[in-house]
Specification:
The complex is a heterodimer. Chain A has helices at 12-23, 64-67, 73-90, 144-155, 176-183, 186-199, 220-231, 245-260, 296-299, 352-355, 357-379, and strands spanning 4-8, 27-32, 94-96, 103-106, 112-115, 117-119, 131-136, 159-164, 209-212, 235-238, 264-267, 270-274, 277-280, 285-287, 289-292, 302-304, 309-312, 318-320, 341-342. Chain A is an alpha/beta fold. Chain A has two domains: 4-54 and 248-379, FAD/NAD(P)-binding domain, CATH 3.50.50; 123-238, 3-Layer(aba) Sandwich (Rossmann fold). In chain A, the strands form six sheets. Chain A has a five-stranded parallel sheet, with helices on one face. In chain A, strands 8-7-9-10 form a four-stranded parallel sheet, with helices on both faces. Chain B is α+β, with helices and mostly antiparallel strands. Chain B has helices at residues 5-16, 52-68, 88-100, 131-144, 192-197, 262-275, 333-347, 386-391, 397-404, 417-428, 430-449, 454-470; strands spanning 22-24, 40-41, 73-74, 78-82, 106-107, 120-124, 127-129, 148-150, 153-161, 164-172, 175-180, 184-186, 205-215, 223-226, 235-239, 242-246, 250-252, 284-295, 312-316, 322-327, 377-379, 384-385. In chain B, the strands form six sheets. In chain B, strands 4, 5, 6, 13, 14, 15, 16, 17 and 18 form a nine-stranded mixed sheet that branches. Chain B has a three-stranded antiparallel sheet with strand order 2-7-3. In chain B, a hairpin with a 2-residue loop joins strand 9 (153-161) and strand 10. The chains are: A alpha/beta, B alpha+beta.
Chain lengths: 380, 476
C-alpha cells in the first residue's frame, strides 16, 4: 500500500485526517485552495447538540440509536479521546464533562447551548451559575444589554454586565482580529488589565468573568492566566461570530505542528483525481492516495449550479440534487467506484448545522480511518 | 388607500391643490407592488409594438420625472438589442413606433458581455428609479403640507350617508379609529379589489405575478432590453451596485406576493443566458415576486395577462366620493395620480389645477450618516451603524431594513441580523425582538432559497451554520 497520501482541504476534517495519517507513519501532503472553515468556527466540538425535534440534548449517549448508524458508541468515545489528544498535542487544552454529557456554553447572544468538548479559553459549565460579563464599545456581536436578558431567560440566573469604552486606537474597521492583535501586544495587555480592574469594581468576585473572544491570538492562555491571577477570579471567553478567534488559533497551531512534523502544506486548486494522484490547475500532480476533505457545499467542495446540478469541484464530476434545500447538507460525493476517499461535510449524510458539526467531522474521519486500517491489516 | 407610488402620488397631488389628505397602508411605505419592481424608468420603447398609449405615457412621464424627481432618477440610458431570429422588419416597425411617440433612438455599438450575435442594438432614454427614497420623499412632502401618512393601518370598513362616503374605519396595533372623509382614493394596487368590495362595488381586476432575480454586481452600466415582442426574461436593470433581471408574467390569485416559483426562475435563467451567456456564473443574491394589478377592460375576455394593457383607468364608483385607480406602471405613477386627483378635486369643488408636472419633489435626505469614526458598523455589507439603527428605534426589523438598507447585501443579514435585533431589543424586549429576528431571517431566507445556487447556496448554508450552531437561534 502506498506510503503517500494527499489530503485535499485544510478545514477540521482535512487536518484531523492528516494528523491520523502522520501518526501512523504515512507521508502526507495537504493541498487546499481556500482558507478552510476554521475562521468560521469558535473551536467547540459539538457532538449531538439537539435531537430530531430540535430540543437540546444533555446526554448524547441517550441517542445511541441515532449515533450508532455511523459508529458504535465505544468507537465514538475513543474517537473523541483521540481528537482531544491531538488537540493537546498542538497546544490546545480542552474541557469535557466527566459523564460524557454536553457542557453548556453561552453564545454571543446569551443562549446557553449544549457543547461537547470546549477549548479551555472558552467559558463552559455543567450547571449554570451567575456570571460577570465585560465588553467594549465596538464589539458589535456582543450586545451586553440583550445578552444579559437572554442569559437570564436561558439560565434563570443573573449576569452582571459592564459595558466599557473602546481603547483610544479603536476604529470601526476593527474586527475581532484587530482586537486580538491589540491584546497580544504589551500595550494592549496593560490597557486590558487596567480597564478590567476599573470595570470590576462592585462586581461579585465569586462569579466567573466572561469576555468576548478577542483575548489575543498567540498568547491567549497566558493572557487569561495573568488576568485570572490579577483579578482573583476565573476568566474565560464567549465566542463571537466570524472571524472566529477560537478556530483561527486552532488552525494556526495545528498547521504549524503538522509542518514541523514533516507534512507538506500546499496551496493549489485540485481539478482532477486519477490513480496517479491529484491534478492541480497549475499543472502540478501530487502523487499518492487521495482523501477529499473539501467541505461540501459550504466549504466549496461542491458547487450548486443554477439548474440544480451539483459539481464536485475537485474532480469535475456532477451529481444531481433534489432541489430540496434541506438535502444540500446531506449531499455526498463519495462513490464506491471512486479512486479517492471522502471525509467531512463532503461525505454528507449528517446535518451538522443541527446535530453538531464536529460530530460529522469525527464520525466521517473515523469511519474512513477504520476502513484504511482494515485494508492495511488485510494486506498483511 | 395605499402608500405605494400611486397612493402617495395622489396624496401629493391633492395636497398641492390644497386638499387635506391622509394616506393609509396596511404595511410600510412601498409594502406592495411599488417595493417589488425592477426599478426601470421606462422610455416606453418596450411597449411601442403592443401598446402605443402606454408607450407614449411612459416617454412623457420619463421626461417629467427627470425634471421633478432628478435626485431619485439615475440616468443610465437603455439599450435595445435584437436576437438574431428577430426579422429586420420588426426592428423597423419598432423604430417607427418609437418615432411616433417621440422616443429618441440611436444606433449603438456592441456591448461587452452581451451575446455577440445580438449586434443590432439601439439606445433609448431608459433610466433607473430609486423607488424607496422617492416614496419616502413623497411621504415627507405630504406630511410637510399638513397631510398624514398612517402605515401599518388597515382599512376595515366604510360608512355612507345619503349615498356619499362619510367615514372610514381603520385598524392598527393601537386599536380601531374612525376617520371622517369626503372622498376616498383606492390606490391599493393588488388589494384594490378588496378595498372596493368594502363599498360593494368589486373591480374587474386581474392580478399578474412577475419573478425577478437579483445579482450582486452591476453587470452593465445601462438598462438592457431584448428587442422583440415583450416576453419573459427580457430586461436587465442596473440598480445601484446590483442588477435585477426580469420578469415573468403569470396570472395569479392572491394580492400578497408569493414565493418565486422555481420553474419560473429556471425559465428566467434560460432566457437570460441567451442574452448574457455567462449569467449562470453571476453571483446571485435572491429572487422575488411582484404582483401587478391589471385592469381588464370589459369585453377583453380571457386575454393572457402579458397582453393586457399597461395603461390605467380611474373608476368612479356608484358610492359618491369613492374612486379607484388601477393598472399603470411605476413610470406613470404621477400621471395616474393626476388623473384621479382631477376627478377628486372636481368632486370636492376645488378649482386649483394639478401642480405636479412642475413642482419638484422634496429633496433627497441623505438619512442618518454612518457616524464617521465613532460608531461600530452593525451591517458591514451596506455600512449601517448603530447610530442609524437607533435613529429608527421602534420600527419593525423589516421597516428598519428598507429605511437603512441593512441586511440587503451579499450576506443577506447573516452577520448583522442578530446585531440589529439586539439594538432593537433595548426598546422592545427580548421576546418581541426574537420574534422580529425570526421573521426577518425567514423573509431573507425566502428570497435566498428561490435562487439557491453558486455562492448564494454557500451563503445560505453559512447563515444556517451561524444561526443554529453559532448563536443557538431557534429554527422555528
Amino acid at each position: 500500500m502506498s506510503r503517500e497520501w494527499v489530503v485535499v482541504g485544510k478545514g477540521p476534517s482535512g487536518l484531523l485526517s492528516a494528523s491520523l495519517l502522520l501518526d501512523a507513519g504515512y507521508n502526507v501532503t495537504v493541498v487546499s485552495h481556500g482558507q478552510g472553515s476554521f475562521p468560521l468556527w469558535s473551536g467547540t466540538l459539538d457532538f449531538y447538540s439537539v435531537d430530531h425535534k430540535l430540543r437540546p440534548v444533555t446526554h448524547p449517549e441517550d441517542h445511541r440509536d441515532v449515533l450508532s448508524r455511523y459508529l458504535s458508541y465505544d468507537q465514538w468515545l475513543s474517537g473523541w479521546d483521540t481528537w482531544r489528544q491531538i488537540l493537546a498535542g498542538i497546544g490546545v487544552e480542552t474541557q469535557v464533562d466527566v459523564m460524557a454529557a454536553n457542557l453548556l456554553s453561552p453564545t454571543a447572544t446569551g443562549v446557553l447551548y449544549p457543547r461537547y468538548v470546549v477549548p479551555n479559553w472558552q467559558y463552559a459549565c455543567r450547571i449554570p451559575e451567575p456570571v460577570t460579563v465585560v465588553s467594549w464599545h465596538g464589539i458589535a456581536d456582543l450586545d451586553l444589554e440583550s445578552w444579559t436578558a437572554r442569559y437570564q431567560l436561558s439560565s434563570g440566573l443573573e449576569a452582571q454586565a459592564r459595558y466599557r469604552p473602546a481603547p483610544g486606537n479603536w476604529s470601526p474597521r476593527w474586527t475581532a482580529l484587530h482586537w486580538a492583535g491589540f491584546f497580544d501586544t504589551e500595550v494592549g495587555m496593560d490597557w486590558l488589565m487596567h480597564d478590567l480592574e476599573q470595570a470590576l469594581v462592585g462586581t461579585d468576585a465569586q462569579n466567573p468573568l466572561l469576555l468576548p473572544q478577542v483575548i489575543g491570538i498567540r498568547h491567549t492562555e497566558q493572557l487569561l492566566n495573568r488576568l485570572s491571577l490579577a483579578l482573583g477570579r476565573k476568566v474565560k471567553e464567549i465566542p463571537l461570530v466570524a472571524p472566529a478567534l477560537g478556530g483561527i488559533r486552532i488552525q494556526e497551531r495545528w498547521q504549524k505542528f503538522l509542518v514541523r512534523q514533516g507534512v507538506r502544506l500546499l496551496t493549489g486548486e485540485a481539478i482532477r483525481i486519477s490513480n496517479d494522484g491529484v491534478w492541480l490547475t497549475d499543472g502540478r500532480v501530487l502523487a499518492g492516495r487521495t482523501v477529499l476533505a473539501t467541505g461540501g457545499v459550504l466549504g466549496g467542495g461542491l458547487r450548486v449550479n443554477w439548474d440544480h446540478t451539483v459539481t464536485n469541484t475537485a474532480t469535475g464530476e456532477t451529481i444531481l440534487w433534489s432541489g430540496d434545500p434541506e438535502d444540500l447538507p446531506l449531499l455526498s460525493i463519495a462513490r464506491d467506484s471512486s479512486n479517492y476517499d471522502v471525509v467531512g461535510r463532503s461525505s454528507g449524510r449528517w446535518n451538522g448545522d443541527l446535530h453538531g458539526g464536529a460530530g460529522q467531522v469525527l464520525g466521517s474521519v473515523l469511519k474512513w480511518w477504520h476502513s484504511v486500517q482494515q485494508e492495511v491489516s488485510l494486506a498483511k | 388607500m395605499g402608500a405605494g407610488a400611486t397612493g402617495l402620488g395622489a396624496a401629493w397631488d391633492l395636497m398641492l391643490r390644497g386638499v387635506p389628505v391622509t394616506v393609509v397602508d396596511q404595511g410600510d411605505l412601498a409594502h406592495g407592488t411599488s417595493g417589488r419592481f425592477h426599478g426601470l424608468l421606462h422610455s416606453g420603447a418596450r411597449y411601442v409594438l403592443t401598446d402605443t398609449v402606454a408607450a407614449g405615457q411612459c416617454q412623457t412621464e420619463n421626461l417629467c420625472l427627470r425634471r421633478i424627481a432628478a435626485s431619485y432618477i439615475e440616468d443610465t440610458g437603455g439599450l435595445f438589442a435584437a436576437p438574431p431570429e428577430v426579422p429586420d422588419r420588426l426592428i423597423d416597425k419598432w423604430k417607427q413606433g418609437c418615432q411616433a411617440v417621440h422616443i429618441p433612438v440611436a444606433a449603438s455599438v456592441a456591448v461587452e458581455g452581451l451575446n455577440s450575435r445580438w449586434s443590432r442594438a439601439f439606445s433609448v432614454n431608459d433610466g433607473v428609479i430609486n423607488g424607496y427614497p422617492l416614496l419616502q420623499a413623497l411621504a415627507r412632502g405630504v406630511e410637510s403640507g399638513g397631510g398624514r401618512v398612517l402605515t401599518h393601518t388597515r382599512l376595515v370598513g366604510a360608512a355612507q350617508v345619503n349615498g356619499k362616503i362619510r367615514k372610514v374605519i381603520l385598524e392598527s396595533a393601537q386599536g380601531t379609529q374612525e376617520l371622517a372623509v369626503d372622498a376616498v382614493v383606492n390606490a391599493a394596487g393588488p388589494w384594490a379589489g378588496e378595498v372596493a368590495a368594502l363599498w360593494g362595488d368589486p373591480l374587474p381586476l386581474t392580478l399578474s405575478r412577475g419573478v425577478m432575480v437579483l445579482f450582486s454586481h452591476r453587470h452593465q452600466p445601462q438598462v438592457i432590453n431584448r428587442l422583440d415582442m415583450p416576453g419573459d426574461g427580457d430586461i436587465l436593470v442596473p440598480h445601484d451596485h446590483i442588477s435585477i433581471w426580469g420578469t415573468t408574467d403569470r396570472e395569479t390569485d392572491l394580492p400578497a406576493a408569493p414565493s418565486p416559483d422555481i420553474q419560473e426562475v429556471f425559465e428566467l435563467m434560460e432566457r437570460g443566458q441567451e442574452m448574457f451567456p455567462d449569467m449562470g456564473q453571476w453571483r446571485v443574491l435572491r429572487a422575488f415576486t411582484g404582483v401587478r394589478p391589471l385592469y381588464r377592460a370589459p369585453g377583453s375576455g380571457s386575454t393572457p395577462t402579458r397582453d393586457i394593457s399597461r395603461d390605467f383607468v380611474v373608476v368612479e364608483h356608484p358610492l359618491s366620493g369613492a374612486f379607484s385607480v388601477i393598472g399603470g406602471k411605476w413610470t406613470t405613477f404621477r400621471l395616474m395620480a393626476q388623473q384621479v386627483a382631477d376627478r377628486v378635486a372636481g368632486y370636492l369643488h376645488y378649482s386649483t389645477a394639478c401642480q405636479t408636472q412642475d413642482h419638484p419633489l422634496p429633496p433627497r435626505v441623505e438619512g442618518v450618516g454612518a457616524g464617521g469614526h465613532a460608531e461600530p458598523l452593525l451591517c458591514e455589507c451596506e455600512r449601517v451603524s448603530s447610530r442609524q439603527i437607533q435613529h429608527y428605534s421602534g420600527c419593525s426589523l423589516t421597516d428598519l431594513r428598507t429605511r437603512t438598507w441593512f441586511g440587503m447585501g451579499p450576506c443577506q443579514g447573516t452577520f448583522c441580523g442578530h446585531r440589529v435585533a439586539a439594538w432593537q431589543s433595548h426598546q422592545l424586549g427580548i421576546d418581541q425582538s426574537d420574534q422580529e429576528l425570526l421573521k426577518f431571517r425567514k423573509e431573507r431566507e425566502r428570497g435566498m432559497l428561490s435562487a439557491l445556487w453558486g455562492d448564494n447556496a454557500v451563503e445560505w448554508l453559512l447563515q444556517r451554520n451561524i444561526r443554529f450552531q453559532g448563536l443557538g437561534e431557534p429554527p422555528k
